[in-house]
Amino acid sequence: MDLNSDLGEGFGIWKLGDDTALLSIITSANVACGFHAGDPSTMRRVCEEAAKNGVRIGAQVSYRDLAGFGRRFIDADPVELADEVLYQIGALDACARAAGTEVVYVKPHGALYNATVHHEKQAEAVVNGAKAFKDLPILGLPGSELLKKAERAGLRGVQEAFADRGYTPEGTLVPRGQPNALLTDTAQIIERATRLQDGEIVAVDGSVIKTRAESLCVHGDTPGAAEHARAVREALGTVTSFA
Hints:
This is LamB/YcsF family protein. This protein starts with a strand and ends in a 7-residue tail after the last helix. With 243 residues, the protein is an alpha/beta fold. 39% of the residues lie in helices and 17% in strands. The model has no long low-confidence stretch (mean pLDDT 95). It is built from 8 helices and 9 strands.
């Protein structure tokens, strides 16, 4: 199982999460590309630390929404959205190459991630933007339009699960702001991670969802994220990148 986390989500003097601690634990880093968070110096620093730790770098692309942290849906024009995805990947890849590495996958952030579960045009736009850069794997929710579009375009669709987010009985994420959207208890997060090895997730209503996941996310902005990630890594035993 690959273990990923969202990093580089500070901006200017504003800091969020412990990137350094997480980079000593995870195998893949979803790095903010400046649209929902991040700035050039933050991006370059995270890429340098990721390279030193042997952590793979992914572009966490988003709507252009710094004020809302990329957690507000935007009815973006698909052509413009594809171009913005391409722009973000290219910017992060420049920072990665300066650190002696490169961007090796793409993952949408926040509202864009959730939109591409069902929104065909935006899912296709993300895929088109990624493919215009390079045939990179794309992380997404199992069964999502995003992964379907990726595979049809000849890209690898990587099924992802979340150790610290609540799930609806339909297998989608409980919207932030609603009860049980976020898991903050380490024991619950470990149970989620270990149960995923058997292909199961327990939804907020207690029902069991059958699923497969190649990559497991622990959010970098979750309280105690580094401790949660370290506990999950120890519980899983062996973690390996998905490619």
